[in-house]
From TrEMBL:
Signal peptide: none
Catalytic activity as recorded in UniProt: cytidine(1402) in 16S rRNA + S-adenosyl-L-methionine = 2'-O-methylcytidine(1402) in 16S rRNA + S-adenosyl-L-homocysteine + H(+)
Protein name, entry field: Ribosomal RNA small subunit methyltransferase I
Record region (Disordered): 1-20
Length: 304
């Protein structure tokens, strides 16, 4: 395994000597994105913030300390405070007090971008309520990495997170999301990936495109693309490990019949030019603008 795919949780120190930006870090709360696998995916700005922040907080203190050690970022006499869902009520006032005193506070989730299925929302919201600066150091995100490699449309997507554990709640969620005109992004446990694939297949049909992205950026990264039917069959008897992002393609509406399209075009042509009417109906009905323009030209001539 080369150094570019070094897992942050198993890497040895010494990837490189980091030299922080000499400029001081302005006061504020910095949400720092950290690698989801490959240790080198941390950004230089993220390292700058970790090197210079007055206060460090993390979902998992050991993971953050190890990441800093890998990149040669000195902890010095600073303490890394644990901040997660279980101690947020107690820890949040301490971090807000530091911010109110004009200090810089860096917060990192265990992996990826804070607040995306990770802690941080209440902290950010509380800081904003007190008119304190909140900034982001963008970087690794399992959602965006999965969208990039899935082969599914990324112009419109919806992050769903983990499906509910209760069968009834899952069924209601799938019913609500079925016709969403966007790529849907789920997080799922390897122990439950077959269950959710089977339920999606049964609820949404076998033909819908999907992708299972496992262990993104890590040594055993695996991308499985296909339909809900084929993927449910592929994972039925598989024992898989690692972190999983499941993506399901958007709902595709049935193409309207030609008579309905012509009726709608005639309505639009009564108020608009051929070009504008075709553009409006094409967008409204999800059809090719060129085809609608030709149809609009024909209808305009027929109605002369």
């Amino acid at each position: 395994m080369d150094s570019d795919s070094t897992d942050v949780r198993s890497a040895q120190p010494g990837i490189g000597a980091f030299r922080p930006d000499p400029r001081p870090l302005a006061p504020g709360l910095y949400f720092v994105s950290t690698p989801i696998g490959a240790a080198r995916d941390i950004t230089l700005r993220g390292l700058d913030i970790l090197a210079k922040a007055d206060v460090l907080a993390a979902e998992d203190t050991r993971t953050l300390k190890h990441l800093m050690e890998i990149h040669g970022v000195a902890l010095g006499d600073r303490h890394v405070f644990a901040y997660h869902d279980h101690n947020g009520d107690a820890m949040r006032p301490k971090l807000l007090r530091a911010l109110a005193e004009g200090k810089s506070v860096a917060y990192a989730s265990e992996a990826g971008t804070p607040l995306v299925a990770d802690p941080g929302f209440q902290l950010g919201r509380a800081a904003i309520a007190e008119d304190l600066p909140v900034l982001a150091a963008p970087g690794a995100s399992a959602v965006l990495a999965a969208l990039t490699v899935s082969g599914l449309p990324s112009d419109r997507f919806m992050f769903v997170g983990f499906a509910p554990a209760q069968a009834g709640a899952r069924a209601r969620m799938l019913a609500e999301l079925k016709d969403t005109p966007a790529t849907l992004v789920f997080y799922e446990s390897p122990k439950r990936i077959h269950r959710i694939l089977s339920e999606l297949r049964d609820a949404w049909g076998e033909a819908r495109e999907a992708a299972v992205c496992r262990e993104l950026t890590k040594r055993f990264e695996e991308i499985s693309r296909g339909t809900l039917g084929s993927l449910a069959a592929d994972f039925e008897d598989r024992a898989v490990k690692g972190e999983i992002v499941l993506l399901v393609g958007r709902a595709v509406a049935e193409a309207p019949d030609e008579a309905s399209v012509e009726d709608r075009l005639r309505q639009a042509l009564a108020e608009k030019s051929v070009k504008d009417a075709a553009a409006e109906v094409a967008l409204e009905m999800g059809l090719a603008r060129r085809d609608l323009y030709q149809m609009a030209l024909r209808l305009a001539k027929e109605d002369e």
